[in-house]
């Protein structure tokens, strides 16, 4: 049986379409399989730069870093020749000629490379920080263009200019007379390049390039000057390989510009080894086979054998394979590959399924070489038993022969100004591990992630779907097709050896277009040529995956998720506010004293879609009680977000391996400070929704699946109670479920023993009860192991948000009919009414704090369905093991934490039905 994968693969490889001639020829290079012998056993004596048998020296390149201080200045995006100059009226500004060596740069500001123009201007005090207060709102409302567009879609003055970078370079004296290359790893986005006043390159695309042979132009006397002019970004993101949220369609506004990745000079030898690619041919514990591929680039007319030393080192650094391949290299580029057996092989597994041993593989010839890390693992995609056909992708992820159900989320880049380094990303990835988020969709509205990101995912076992940054349509010209082709080639070749990368995607929400699929056809072809080891999906959602925002954007209740159970749920969720501590970092705290919030620019700039109307959209799901102040609204919106994600996610998990394969809720972290769909905010602070995600994503857990969150008197509540064991070890234990009424009387209860094999789940039982009133209900589900130790617990609330007649009338109206109403009218009805979960019988908590553990005990007579730990600090590396959890009467939980050097001046524990207490030492 064919699948959509088969159809699209055949279609792409049959297409003669291409964008860039060099890439077309390079991708199709034939691969030789040179003869292999044990290292040291060849007739030729190794070059002095080649390590002797038993010795390992990592291949190195002679480079001079050009990172650090550059000079920066902006100028109007002038045109020397334009049709406007033929007629009367306002002509475009004339261009500047700052590439000239005699340019006076005394007024230029210092700019850090890697970095962005906006970061440099902020650091120099030339503009206020665009991510804080109302600075971007004020700029766009006063100066943004076109003026007739909504303010958040306009362009700032920075985004309307071209920007010039310049710096002098020192060239090592030993390099004189040798071939020298100037290499850029990322210039955002289209730029011209000069050296000593001479034009040397024109390049488009922010994911690498250009590399320029500058041998004949370098003087080497300390006066060499590099100048880069970066064009103003395009008005439209469609068809442009750039992160797109900054254009203003989603949340936040900042269109990045700058030299955002490293720059260097390289000494290029006559024979270079490049494009090292390591993949797994066969994977089994104790014995595996790797395929090692590389290019040889000969810059001289010589031709002959180029013995290439290929070595594999195990995670401890011991050489476990060492061979010499008799490659033949003539002028130009040739491609070679060998297969190498790895003895005593240790497999690389995704998070939660085993260890992540990383091998090092190096290839070296005549002193030129490359080294990469590799994990020994295979990935294949199979059809789900209940979902198959040539209109559906193969969605079951099979790693090392083991079918998996993957729990994950979308990933959005976290630093639009390229000034924070990797610290926050590392923190977020560690939080993903703690939440058992095994797979991330590197979302096509974001960026192609860094080597550091993939190195960390390799180390942690987090799988990644990397989408190309194309979002909401592919309208493009032939010129952009060439750029996309060249950039796709670079992206795939850079990342393809990472074991964490398991799938490529053509971008976010790019359905078939009237104007054609040129871009995705070319990208798909390049992926399949350069990396045949991984699937390529044309977009998400497509071929069985689904995105769904009827809940939230259309005001549908959370119950609407019950009819959305696709093979892969690629996007879903609610937006929520971030904590007050974070809000006080980007706006005046005085604004937080006003409720409903005023239509102040600082508030608008940091809302999910630049409008106070989003507060109303959040309130529909967060009305656990009266919404009368920011603190309450923050707490309720975060819990509502987590509860909605749980309702949808657990339903998919109940069908794991049969009709569902994965979920990727939207999303983990944040690109801008403010309200959003993230479960961890811009500063790295976990929301209450993060802890919900950690609870429902636990590898071993019991959970309830039901269709209704609100029931009237006389109706029957029915929940399927499931147990899941997503680990490599069997699990025996007991599942129990208890349904409480508003007074914590038990109205239904069931328990059952479960024996789960590795990677399995089961329906433990169905719990049913007739509801006597519309009062609140609380469902507690727990899983205990054979020793009686707690494995998981989950607490659910029904009838937790009763609606007054006024609220019901508001929510019955189409959302579009309410957008012009004052926010006071929309939020007013939510300021009154009951808080059912807070009005249940009161209980009492005790807490003790010592040695990195917070112990919380419910010493009262009644359950505490929502226990909250307040005040935990925000710091990279800091984590709290749980929050927003429930406790039965008499139950105690030990919550581990790590402050990562931060202070926690006033820890506090409370429940919605228990007073706050400060932990005793």
Summarize the structure.
This protein is α+β, with helices and mostly antiparallel strands and 921 residues long.
Describe this protein's structure.
Pathway: Glycan metabolism; N-glycan degradation. Keywords: Glycosidase, Hydrolase, Signal. It is an enzyme of class 3 (hydrolase). The chain is an alpha+beta fold and 921 residues long. It contains 16 helices and 47 strands. The strands form eleven sheets. An eight-stranded parallel sheet has the order 29-28-27-26-25-32-31-30. A six-stranded antiparallel sheet has the order 5-4-6-12-9-10, covered by helices on one side. A five-stranded antiparallel sheet has the order 2-18-17-20-21, with no helix packed on it. A hairpin with a 2-residue loop joins strand 20 (359-365) and strand 21. Helix 1 (4-14) crosses helix 8 and helix 7 (478-495) packs parallel to helix 8. The protein is globular, with a radius of gyration of 29 Å. Mean pLDDT is 95; it is low at 41-50.
Kindly name the structural category: alpha+beta
**Main sheet: which strands, in order across?**
29-28-27-26-25-32-31-30
Low-confidence stretches: 41-50
Strand tally is 47
In CATH, the homologous superfamily of the domain at 63-267 goes by the name: Galactose-binding domain-like
Largest sheet at a glance? 8 strands, parallel
In round numbers, the mean pLDDT is 95
CATH level 3 topology of the domain at 63-267: Jelly Rolls
CATH architecture classification name of the domain at 63-267? Sandwich
Give me the number of helical elements. Answer: 16
Tell me the strand percentage band.
Answer: 25-35%
Helix content: 10-25%
Distance between the termini: 64 Å
| Radius of gyration from CA coordinates | 29 Å
Shape: globular
Q: State the CATH class of the domain at 63-267.
A: Mainly Beta
Oligomeric grouping of the chains? single chain
Domain Mannosidase Ig/CBM-like: 719-797
Protein name: Beta-mannosidase B
Domain Beta-mannosidase-like galactose-binding: 98-235
Enzyme class: hydrolase
């Amino acid at each position: 049986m064919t699948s959509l994968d088969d159809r699209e693969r055949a279609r792409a490889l049959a297409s003669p379409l291409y964008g860039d001639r060099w890439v077309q020829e390079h991708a199709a290079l034939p691969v030789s399989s040179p003869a292999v012998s044990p290292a040291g056993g060849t007739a030729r004596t190794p070059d002095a730069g080649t390590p002797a048998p038993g010795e390992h020296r990592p291949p190195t390149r002679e480079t001079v870093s050009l990172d650090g201080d550059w000079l920066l200045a902006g100028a109007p995006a002038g045109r020397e020749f334009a049709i406007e100059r033929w007629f009367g009226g306002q002509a475009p500004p004339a261009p500047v000629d700052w590439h000239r060596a005699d340019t006076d740069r005394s007024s230029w500001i210092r700019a850090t490379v890697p970095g962005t123009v906006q970061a440099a201007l902020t650091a120099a005090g030339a503009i206020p920080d665009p991510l804080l207060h109302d600075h971007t709102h004020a700029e766009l409302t006063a100066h943004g263009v076109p003026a007739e567009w909504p303010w958040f879609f306009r362009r700032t003055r920075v985004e309307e200019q071209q920007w010039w970078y310049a710096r002098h370079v020192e060239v090592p004296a030993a390099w004189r007379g040798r071939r020298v290359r100037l290499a850029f790893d990322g210039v955002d986005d289209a730029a011209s390049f000069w050296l000593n006043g001479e034009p040397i390159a024109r390049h488009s695309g922010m994911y690498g390039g250009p590399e320029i042979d500058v041998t004949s132009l370098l003087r080497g006397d300390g006066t060499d000057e590099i100048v880069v002019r970066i064009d103003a970004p395009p008005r439209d993101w469609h068809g442009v390989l750039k992160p797109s949220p900054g254009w203003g369609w989603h949340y936040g506004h900042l269109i990045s510009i700058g030299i955002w990745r490293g720059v260097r000079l390289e000494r290029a030898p006559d024979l270079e080894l490049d494009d090292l690619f390591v993949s797994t041919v066969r994977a089994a514990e104790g014995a595996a086979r790797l395929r090692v591929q590389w290019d040889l680039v000969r810059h001289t007319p010589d031709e002959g054998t180029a013995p290439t030393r290929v070595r594999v080192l195990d995670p401890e650094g011991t050489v476990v394979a060492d061979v010499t391949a008799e490659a033949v290299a003539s002028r130009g580029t040739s491609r070679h590959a060998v297969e190498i057996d790895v003895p005593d092989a240790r497999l690389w597994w995704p998070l939660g399924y085993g260890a992540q041993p990383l091998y090092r593989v190096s290839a070296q010839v005549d002193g030129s070489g490359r080294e990469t890390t590799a994990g020994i693992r295979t990935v294949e995609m199979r059809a789900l038993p209940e979902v198959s056909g040539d209109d559906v992708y193969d969605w079951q992820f099979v790693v090392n022969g083991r079918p998996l159900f993957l729990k994950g989320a979308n990933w959005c880049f976290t630093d639009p100004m390229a000034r924070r380094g990797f610290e926050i990303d590392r923190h977020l990835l560690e939080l993903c591990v703690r939440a058992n988020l095994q797979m991330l969709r590197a979302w096509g509205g974001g960026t192609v992630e860094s080597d550091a990101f993939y190195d960390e995912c390799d180390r942690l076992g987090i799988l990644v779907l990397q989408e190309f940054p194309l979002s909401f349509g592919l309208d493009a010209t032939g010129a952009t097709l060439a750029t996309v082709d060249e950039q796709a080639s670079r992206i795939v070749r850079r990342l393809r050896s990472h074991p964490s990368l398991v799938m490529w995607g053509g971008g976010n929400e790019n359905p078939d277009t009237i104007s054609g699929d040129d871009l995705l056809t070319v990208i798909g072809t390049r992926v399949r040529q350069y990396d045949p080891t991984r699937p390529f999906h044309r977009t998400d959602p497509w071929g069985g995956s689904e995105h769904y925002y009827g809940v939230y954007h259309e005001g549908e209740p959370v119950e609407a998720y019950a009819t959305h159970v696709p093979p892969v749920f690629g996007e879903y969720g609610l937006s929520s506010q971030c904590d007050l501590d974070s809000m006080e970092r980007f706006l005046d705290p005085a604004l937080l004293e006003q409720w409903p919030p005023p239509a102040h620019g600082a508030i608008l700039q940091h809302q999910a879609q630049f409008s106070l109307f989003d507060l109303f959209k959040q309130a529909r799901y967060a009305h656990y009680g009266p919404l009368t102040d920011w603190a309450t609204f923050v707490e309720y919106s975060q819990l509502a977000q987590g509860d909605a994600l749980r309702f949808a996610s657990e339903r998919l998990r109940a069908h794991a391996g049969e009709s569902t394969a994965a979920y990727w809720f939207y999303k983990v972290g944040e690109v801008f400070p403010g309200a959003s769909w993230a479960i961890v905010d811009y500063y790295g602070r976990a929301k209450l929704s993060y802890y919900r995600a950690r609870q429902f994503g636990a590898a071993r857990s019991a959970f309830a699946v039901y269709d209704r969150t609100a029931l009237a008197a006389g109706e029957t509540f029915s929940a399927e109670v499931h147990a899941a064991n997503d680990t490599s070890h069997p699990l025996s234990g007991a599942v129990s479920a208890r349904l409480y009424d508003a007074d914590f009387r038990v109205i239904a209860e069931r328990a059952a023993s479960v024996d789960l094999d590795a990677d399995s789940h089961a329906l433990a039982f169905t719990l049913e009860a007739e509801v006597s009133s519309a009062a609140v209900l609380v469902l507690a589900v727990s899983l205990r192991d054979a020793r009686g130790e707690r494995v998981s617990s989950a607490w659910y609330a029904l009838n937790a948000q009763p609606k007054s007649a006024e609220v019901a009338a508001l929510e019955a109206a189409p959302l579009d009919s309410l957008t012009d109403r004052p926010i006071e009218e929309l939020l007013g009805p939510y300021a009154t009414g009951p808080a059912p979960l807070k009005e249940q019988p009161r209980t009492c908590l005790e807490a003790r704090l010592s040695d990195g553990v917070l112990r919380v005990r419910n010493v009262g007579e009644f359950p505490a369905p929502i226990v909250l730990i307040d005040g935990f600090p925000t710091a990279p590396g800091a984590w709290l093991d749980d929050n927003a959890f429930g406790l039965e009467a008499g139950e105690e939980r030990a919550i581990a934490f790590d402050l990562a050097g931060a202070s926690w001046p006033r820890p506090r524990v409370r429940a919605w039905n228990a007073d706050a207490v400060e932990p005793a030492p």
